[in-house]
What does this fold into?
Amino acid sequence: MSRTIIVSNRLPTKVHRTAEGLDFQPSEGGLATGLGSIYRSDNNVWVGWPGLFVDDPTEQHTVTERLRANSMAPVFLTEDEIRDYYEGFSNSTLWPTFHYFTQFATYNDEHWQAYVAVNEKFCAAVLALAGPEDTIWVQDYQLLLLPEMLRRARPQATIGFFLHIPFPSYELLRVLPWGADLVRGMLGADLIGFHTYGYMRHFLSAVSRMLGLSIQNGQIETPTRTVLVDAFPMGIDYQRYELAAASPVVEEHQRAYREALRDVRVVLSIDRLDYTKGIAQRLLAFEQLLLRHPEWREQVSLLMVVVPSRDQVAHYAALKEEIDELVGRINAQYRTISWNPIQYFYRSFPFDELVSLYRLADVALVTPIRDGMNLVAKEFIASKTHQRGVLILSERAGAAVELSDALLINPTNTNQLVEALNEALLMPEDEQITRMANMQDLVRQYDVFAWTRLFMDRLAHSKEKQHTMTTN
Ligand code: GDG
It folds into this structure.
């Protein structure tokens, strides 16, 4: 029987060493939820790094067995590999370049060599598991070379690839010494998916300009195969948020928060620590709101959650300092004995508390400089079962294509951001409800399960078509 093999940098589990031994906890990310329905069924399996260093062969065996029982297979990476392939090429070269932050990108041949070697390591791990009839679905920018490596080993395999971050314009990609290799690597897939048509068009343009391949109706003709490309905007597990929103525990948290904040209105900001998310720009806009609209002082607080992330990469540590300083300065300038302009948390919240924060917020401020999709915007919408609340959304997040009922802003336009905040805080309730209801219809319908289904169906279909073409 054929099966599906999901491949991503990280497995959907967190493994920790404790005094009692190894501890395995499922991770909560959107991808884990969406693909959970696939990899845990039939004989399917998820291949990836378990998130800790395991050098000892006996311990590797234990980890492998534990994971196997949960439909997962590990790729063990060394500290050097994580430094050069993950923190190096993936997060210091590809991440900044694909988000248009070329000033932060490093071009280091050792990192590139490690990236190639680790992609090969993943290839070997997948080939050890995959039969000729199996479907392989590769995820994201850490594994751009993997589809082509798999294709070379298994010319007939069914291979899908999905990119979770933006695909940049050709002008950005050509800055990379390895741009053409990366595009060639992706073309090993039968179907390549992006969050938006914009990213897809950039990819097609890179394919034609860098590799000179012909493109017809969104299909790429390589000398040996046809590669399909399409947009699949990723969704969330809508029902999970909707159900949590109605649960007593979320209600209880929300009540406690409301009591602590008294009747102050709440503007919510939630992100991983990342320079792509526009956190500093958001703080400056909030400061301007207090300066230009003094009527909001003591009436509104910015509740800002920054989740620690990638702190081994230098630019992230510098950003953390910048945010700390800005928050300190704004709070020192405007606070009163009974009011804090910014409630700043540098940590993550458990799921129930996160949903309570979404429900509590009058306004969600989601203003990335660049973002592949942005799931926080969709989670806020799903949690608002009472339909009160306003989403301010960056036009440069993939989610803006679908969420046209948000207040769409340019995140570097401080004036526009300040006026959007003022407008959101003044928006009449009936307008809030109309906008929220429209967005809810859309986010509910295209949830993460629909996303998975659409991609897998299209992949199966593309393969059938190729098969018919080669047998005729
Ligand atoms: C990449 C792309 C694309 C955040 N704080 C807490 C918490 N979170 C969860 C959110 C959300 C997730 O983290 C963040 O997802 P995003 O989509 O917003 O951003 P990235 O991490 O950058 O993800 C992005 C995504 O991949 C999927 O393709 O949308 O564009 O960059 O789910 O809920 N979760 C909990 N506590 C927190 O404090 N429990």
Notes: Residues 28, 30, 164-165, 234, 270, 272, 305, 307, 348-349, 351, 354, 371-376, 379 surround GDP-alpha-D-glucose (CB under 6 Å). The first helix runs from residue 30 to 39.
